[in-house]
Design brief:
Helix 2 crosses helix 4. The longest helix is centred in the N-terminal third of the chain and has 24 residues. The two termini are 28 Å apart. The protein is mostly helical and 129 residues long. It contains 6 helices and no strands.
């Protein structure tokens, strides 16, 4: 699969080190948007469950959250979700990214870790006419 998707499981010494890797796996704005919508939907399910006292919305929360996030990795970013190798750290970083996006501070974090989406020229094969 794409960038870092086929690598063997990587080990990280700290959450901050993993955070830099996590951001690199979410370099495309579309990937981050799908994650944002999935996280918002899963949080809405949790709130609905709390408000109604019904557990059924909790069953939809991971389906919506992970479904949208994984879609973005396979079809937008072109890599393997970090959740597969580091589920707890990935979940924590997803909420961190969600909050940074919500408060308009994600661009600063991306710049701090020098994360940029791959160029279209590098992503697409060269055209010969």
């Amino acid at each position: 699969m794409g960038r870092s998707g086929g690598e063997a499981r990587r080990e990280f010494g700290s959450m901050e080190e993993f955070w830099g890797f996590y951001l690199s796996q979410h370099s495309k704005p579309g990937t981050r948007r799908w994650h944002f919508v999935g996280t918002a939907a899963s949080l809405a399910c949790a709130l609905m469950a709390a408000a109604t006292g019904r557990a059924a919305p909790l069953l939809a929360a991971p389906v919506l959250g992970y479904g949208m996030a994984w879609y973005s990795h396979f079809f937008v970013e072109g890599n393997r979700p970090a959740t597969f190798g580091h589920p707890v750290w990935s979940l924590l970083c997803d909420y961190r990214m969600f909050l940074l996006m919500l408060t308009g501070r994600i661009d600063g974090e991306l710049a701090r870790f020098r994360v940029r989406p791959p160029s279209d020229a590098a992503a697409a094969p060269a055209r010969q006419d």
